[in-house]
Amino acid sequence: MDLIGIISQVVFFLVAALTLAAAFATVLLRNVFHAGLALVGTFFGVAAIYLMLEAEFLAIVQVLIYIGAIAVLILFAIMLTRSLMKNEDSGMNKQWAWAAIAISTLFLGMFIVILQVPWLLNTSVIGTDIVPFLGTELLTTYLLPFEIVSVLLLATLIGAFIIARE
Amino acid sequence: MDGLVLLYLSPELILIAASLLIFGLDLVWRGRGSQTLGIVALVALFLSLIVTPLIAFRADPTELLSIKWGNQIALFCKICGPTVADLSYWEPALVADAIYVSDNLTNFFRIIASITGIVVLFASFDFMRGRKFVGEFYALFLLAIAAMMMMAGSTNLLMIFLTLEFLSIVSYILTGYLRENKKSNEAAIKYFLFGAIASAIMLYGMSMFYGATGSLNLAQIGAVITADTNYEVLALFAAALMLAGIGFKIALVPFHMWAPDAYEGAPTPVTAFLSVGPKVAGFAILLRLTLQVIYVYQFDWVALYSVVAVITMTLGNVIALTQSNVKRLLAYSSIAQAGYMLIGVASISGSGQPLDGVNAVLIYIAAYLFTNLGAFLVVIAIENKTGAVDISQYGGMIKRAPALAILMTYFMLSLAGIPPTAGFLGKFFVFGSAINSGLAWLAVIGVINSVISLFYYMRVIRPMFFDPTPEGAQPISYSRWLQTGLVVTAVMTLLIMLFPTPLFNLVSYGTQIFGIAMR
Amino acid sequence: MIQNFTLFIPVFPLLAFAIIVLLTRRNNRLSAWIAIVGIIMALVLSLGVFLESLAEGPELAQHPFYAAPIVWYPYGLATMNFGWFVDPIGSVMLFMVPTVCLMIFIYSVAYMRHSHVDEQGHHIQEDDPRYSHFFAYISLFTAMMLLLVISSSLLQFFIAWEVMGFCSYALIGFWSFRGLKEHHIDEAQVGRARGASIKAFLVTRVGDILLLTGMILLLLVTGTLDFTQMFNPDGLNNVLLADSPLPGMTWLTLIALLIFGGTVGKSAQFPLHIWLPDAMEGPTPVSALIHAATMVSAGIFLIIRMFPLFVVDSQTGGNAMMWVAIIGAFTAIFAATIGLAQNDIKRVLAYSTISQLGYMLAALGIGAFVAGSFHLIMHAFFKALLFLAAGAVIHSVGTNDMLKMGGLWRKMPITFITFMIGAFALMGIFPFAGFWSKDEILLEALRAGFYGEASPQTQTIRFVYICLAIAAFLTALYTGRQIFLTFFGKPRDEHAYEHAHESPITMWAPLAVLATFTTFLGLWNAPFIGAFTHYIGEGGLMGLPQAFEHTAFDQLAWISMFLSLGIAIGGLIVAYLIYGFRPVAAGQPDPFARLGIIYKVLVNKYWLDELYGYKINLDGTVQRGLLIRFAGALSRGSYWLDRKVIDGLVNLAGWFGRILARLWGWFDARIIDGIVNATASVTGEIAGWWRTMQTGDVQNYALIAAAGAMAFAIIFLLRSFT
Amino acid sequence: MINDIPLVYYLSLSAALFCVGLFGALARRNAIAVLMGIELMLNAVNINFVAFWRYGSVNPILNQAGIVFALFVITVAAAEAAVGLALVISIYRSRDTVNVEEIDLLKW
Amino acid sequence: MLSAITFIPLLGAIIILFLPSDNAIKRFAIIWSIIPLILATIAWVIFPTWPDFTLMGSYCPPDIWVASANTYLGECAPWIPVLGIQYHLGVDGISMPLVWLTTLLTTLGLFYSARVINERVKEFFALFLILEMGMLGVFVSLDLFLFYIFWEIGLVPMYFLIGIWGHDTDRPQYAAIKFFLYTLAGSVFMLLAIIALYLFSTPHTFDITLLTANRDNMPWAKDALISTLAFLGFFLAFAIKMPLFPFHTWLPDAHTAAPTAGSVILAGILLKLGGYGFIRILLPMFPGTFQSLALWIGVLAVISIVYGAFVAMSQNDFKRLVAYSSVNHMGFVILGFAAAAALTNEQVTSPELSNYFNNGAAAINGAVLAMFSHGVITGGLFFLVGMLYERTHTRELAQFGGFMAKVPIYGALLLLTAFASLGLPGLAGFVGEFLVLQGSYTTLTALTFVAVIGIVLTAAYFLWKVIQKVLLGQADEKWAKLPDLKGYEILTLVPLAVLMVLIGIYPSWILDTINQATIVVLKAVGAT
Questions:
Q1: Which residues are CB-contacts of B27 (< 8 A; sequence separation ≥ 6)?
Q2: pTM to 2 decimals?
């Protein structure tokens, strides 16, 4: 294993640990606002993972949209619902124990499947920039989903407006 | 993408264009003329209903009127480009890359979706009079119907996810439409949270499929999985997770918990739509998933579907026994009906006989569509005038609104499966296909369930005929629209039973692509 | 050729019945006349047929007047035909039945008029409120009896037999209901009549189902119920002799015994005799009709019709005839003993009828076919005479109780004379009918028992002879007692005595006619004339051509004649010593009571009514006994079973559901206490219980959904490993 | 870079992230926290897709199905978040709470 | 002709919905219900000359044409070609009398109700006519699918008749839903059996005549498991409707709650649907299975007879007593069918054992005639009970007494009906019972000895409870001014009384018709 391999592995473990820690923080922190900030941390971690997987465009999109839009939106929502001031006690509800058990077995199952299934493995090197190809593919093969998403966003816009307007 | 191909997307496009038009008009008229917007929506739905057969026709000199319900398939795929392939039968290889397919099954569900739309619109005209955001309601509703149609046609994991989410989001908005009503809000938030979690689980399943086969197209995934049996682990694990998403939409038992609350909370026309729309589209996806992807592991999915079917039917029927709120009762009843449909899916045996699972499901869907919408129309008619939603408030309905009482009796009997109704034909086919494919025990449980179900269906009718009318109750009048809606559903429920041949032709056309057509 | 119209004989009274019921219900006089005209036309036609068959002579037995044109119903490829069948004994019955019935019809015209003293004290004579009903019922009764006599198939016979049972129910229960204003009968009589009618119908019904079973088994085995085809030789020999389901009994014996069961029910023989004495609650002409002329003789006539069956059975080792003889003889003596202790004038005659019927059955049982049938005919006449005379006495004195009568011979000379003739005939005193027929039976029994060649039956025939002899003596005793109590001695009840008057002409005329018949008819079969034996005996039986051997009137016959005469006169003398010599004074108990325990047993009729559980007390209430209380308990038990157990299956499930719910509640009170009370059934319980799964918390829902998806995925995972 | 870190690491990371997100969705009382959980789950799925694209696809340049799917997931997540928060705010406005356990007017 | 008879009542019901005033409805309903009666009478009168298989301008596939040679007035029309379902009607000797009885009792029921029912008249008469259509449909349809549909159509109107117009002292709604659930529970298993028959028959068909004709080379007949399960499915439905012993608990409740006309139809016709099912489906299609189970069914029948009689004896509600008497009488019908089924093959086919064949035919004749006469008698009884209730507003037997003197006409008719019911020869009840006994002694001898005890018990409880308590004895003051039967009441009862006497005296006018069909059925049974 050459030096770069080791370094990249170390970097991966670092990033993965950070992301998971942030995720745990989002879930466990009692104060919802702090949880929001931890969420932003997780998003950064995921963006780093994308970079390691050579999907730079996606990393940027992740940072821009997830952190820029969705995380901010969530923080606004937290402020709007003034749960900032109210110091709620533990954020967990009555059934968290049952949920924990169920989810750990689910994780176990997933882990077994991940190890067991013969995933496709054809390691090919990406030389050039893939973004233009992505563009063409979006507008040729996946043109129909692209249009549908646009209508979806329009509907969401109006829907959110209807529901949340003062 | 040349113009001809757009023709094969025309029903969806018409609806989307109409909804945009309605948004625009609503903007221009600033809230006045909501009635005309409704008419526009209705016209759009009729247009899409008429266009579907036009697409399906194919000039065939050999046929009688030289019109044959052909089975062209418009493919929107990477390699073959958006071309129109004229296939008599659905070879996976040919449609390997298709993202969206406008084939027989899609046409069948387009017809079903547009009919649902029309009938629910009939119901909502009354309901919407005098409320805010009426234009938006109609527009969003049209989008929901378009999403339903697209769900039926999508043979690509991405498309399935996208259309499912599209329908879900629009449904959340529609459910939460009555902002000031506490119940509507609560129903919407519950529906949203449950839906979001379920679709996340489904997504994870989809990623598994993509990981193993490298492709998003159902047919290709199916080919890879059937070719190599050690993918069995993945296929079933991922399918089970995907079942969460689809099960949520159909409201099968472990994933049904949202339904009673959402049905009770949502405005009644939306409840009517929820009880039919997403459920039917969900079955379209389930059919495609079962027949094209995991068909080879017959033993497993038959076992899974039978078990889920039994739990769904039994739980749905049994809990409905103690319900006193009509909408909640109809919610549990529609859960039970989903259980019966699942029996049809479980007994798919590809035997080519008329009594085959696939035909049974489609017939049951058609029958359930008219019966359930009819029942909801009656509930809406009563609620609009008296605001009564509890069974006890239905006292002496036979005097106040004899037509409504008689129709409600007819629809309840159809739901219970008493003969001279479409419901019976549906149940007959479903139980017949179960016995035909060797699941006789399933048919027996189904039959016992339909007897239990009769008890609560009769509980709805009993006060109408036997209890005295509460004092000061004047006769219930309802708009012309509701009347036409009731007439359409009642006549169709009777016609499907008395002259089922046209329905059988439509169904056999629908299942032709799977090679299990009803000769 | 008159015999072609035999089928019309029952039609006339039936027509009379229909006319009365439908048209002339209101007009009493007219209904009475229509009934009488109907019976007269039947009598004329019957006499015609009788004379024609007499002309035909004995071989009528082998090829009788027979035709079965009416197809009553088809079953499979075969059909059940009805028609008429007249053989010698049938023709004689055709002579006897309408004659006696005519007399009874004329008699009842007057009898059904009641006189009572109203508030102002003067007599009012008025018809019974349901006068026309009475005539309708007795016309139907006679029609059915005639149909029975001429029936060509056992099924036709059975139908007539049962409809007659209905008529007897209706007639016995004639006074079983009373309108608000009617007071010709009192409360107690209504109660007693009601009890008696249902008792009669049910007990005869038990007999009927035995006959029904026998009849169907016969149809099953021989394939036909037609008298002409039933006794064909091969049918009798091979088919019937196969072993029946019951062990040790051939089909023939089983069928014969079942048919005899019918007779026991109808002719009130030992186990099923309890209904006849209570049937006295009906008007006297009815008692005469039922217990003399028709109903009871129908039972005997059934055995006579089916006699070839019994003969072949005894020839092939069956013991059916032996049973007939034993039960007949035992009933004869048993009934005679009870007859001694009865104070009601009609009940004495009732028990005497049972005893005489026992006589006839005993005769038939020992094979004395001719003697038995002759006694049947004679008994019909003199017993009808006795009943009608007793009726006249009751009509004039107003009470049945003999202890209240006495010295009536002055007040009612004609009734007295006719009653005496009947009594002598019953006792078997020389010139009268009874003597010839009873002596004939005793002679046959004596010859077969003691002088005939030894055969397995001789022991039983000896036992029969002894019983009959004792019975003859007892008959003489109780008849004598009756005569002395009613007509001789001092009047014991002043009021009744001066109230007594001779009955009007329409009542004593029939008595006279019957009396003449009783005196002269006996000669028909007198030793030297023997016309009856020749006519009946010569032809043998249907299917059994060899005739009944007619032994000349040898020296043994003389001895038995004097013996029976002596027994009769001895009985009369003893009766005179007890009752005639020192007539019983008013209020003095019956001298017979001095016998103490024996008297008590006889008065209570061996407590059989209590054993059966249906004792009708004098005041009209019914005392429920063992059997009926058991049946009542059984029915209440099954109703409880029906209500609680079977119908309760659903509720039972509900109960099971409640247990389950409580169990669940014990360790999860929070959910259960919120349950809306579940419906009754277990589905309701479970529904209520499952319903609370819907807690309203969406995360709870999501957890269940996730857990569900996870469960399916994990199961598939595990499955794919194995 | 590609063959240093095996695919399984990414998949297990995404599985872990998915489970944490699911736990967040099921166990947190605050509706917005549930939303955050859902976002986590969707991010986990995206990692999955991108990883499968990178490691699995024959010609990652021409056939970028994984990335396209991820992109669409992000957009849909955004839409969902918008609608979800709108609903949360309207619930808050009418019931003055966003605690999911207290929103149980509709039950049984 | 048959389609006309079946669908005229439906047409009538629809017309009634548009009639304005109450007595217009009443008059119309009565006149309208006479039309099917006339048609049925014509059909029966021309019975001997029935053209063997008239195709009323309708096309029947050749194999069905051949198979339904012995049915008459046949009508065929393709209805659902995909599943091979024919709109196939036909009548033979057994179903003709029952069709006629249905039309008669409905006309009498409507005629009587016209005076008695005064609230919600429109619904009552409409539902009544729909009920008639349902019942007629069952008797005339020769296609299992059509049979099932008409079987269920009959349930709904009866549910409403019991529920709405029932006497509110006897929990009518409970009785109505119990009736509906019991019958439905049975009939859904029949549905499964019908589907199983369809799937396992070589030319997939629902046609009764076809399934009977070439029953032997059908897979379902060869496979013992399927034929037994199918048999039990059908048997359950018919036993509940019949009602046979363990399934009878719905009958007393439904009867006591139903209005007079309702319980006349319920007892008169609805119970016969079960019996008709026995003779049309169970015996011809499953001779082997029926024969093996004949003893057990016989045992249940005999229990029904004796048990029904005992329970009736302990009733003090007049209507409940008559209801339990129906259980008693229907026990005989099933005993008849079981006896006929118990005939072994060689008994049915070999010529020298024709005695068994004839007695078997007698059993079936008896059973069908018992059904017909029970319809007439119990119909009459329920009318009488209803009339008594109209006058005294109580059904408590203990309170009656001495009515024979007070209301002689009513007394006479009750006497006639009661004695007909307990099987007095010369009246309708006896002939049916005698034929059944004749048949059942042939094959189930031991059982019949017990059944015969049932006859005495029947006589006992009828005399004891009905005649003794109601008619005889001392009239009570409070019944002083009891009115006797009015014109219309007598007119309702006269046809039934005439029928009772007619069948009793000369039964061959009806048994000829039945016997023709019985011979065909028995020959088909022996065909294996």
A1: none
A2: 0.89
